[in-house]
Amino acid sequence: xxxxxxxxxxxxxxxxxxxxxxxxxxxxxxxxxxxxxxxxxxxxxxxxxxxxxxxxxxxxxxxxxxxxxxxxxxxxxxxxxxxxxxxxxxxxxxxxxxxxxxxxxxxxxxxxxxxxxxxxxxxxxxxxxxxxxxxxxxxxxxxxxxxxxxxxxxxxxxxxxxxxxxxxxxxxxxxxxxxxxxxxxxxxxxxxxxxxxxxxxxx
Length: 203
Prior knowledge:
By secondary structure, this protein is an alpha+beta fold. The chain folds into two domains: 56 residues, SH3 type barrels (Roll), CATH 2.30.30; 115 residues, endopeptidase domain like (from Nostoc punctiforme) (endopeptidase fold (from Nostoc punctiforme)), CATH 3.90.1720. It has four helices and 15 strands. The strands form five sheets. It has a six-stranded antiparallel beta sheet. A hairpin with a 2-residue loop joins strand 5 and strand 6. The longest helix is centred in the middle third of the chain and has 19 residues. It starts with a strand and ends with a strand. The relative contact order is 0.15.
């Protein structure tokens, strides 16, 4: 993952008042170890700390705004073309597969049913079964596929919140890995997390 803001602080703990470990400039590459509640635990230059997930992107940012606009538009078109290639299975199949993990514990940084899932570890694991490779973090997944309006949601769509992701089940509900102490479950879309940001169709 890459820093997407001009200058950010890496903090010792996952809160904005925690001690600053180091500062990073835009496009600095970091290794994301885990993710929880909108924060990513990262390793960079031999040090570990926490960064708001919204400050990380799966791609480097264009530093020249004037020259980046046509490239960005072209890049977006290419990305959408690639991600809308039909994968094996469909939305209903994704939901059916995801449901078998109901009750699997939440584990910070978890990516498998044997060890537990965090939110983006769960979505990555489920979609991978259907040939869709997603970025590891919720921030990265927010740019996958193509945007879908809330009025056009379909089963299997990826639901994006601030620092959280879930899979749309249908009927106004989602399935997700909530937070520590909880397990994979189905809840109404507005109860999964605050700050609904949108949806992405990745199948």
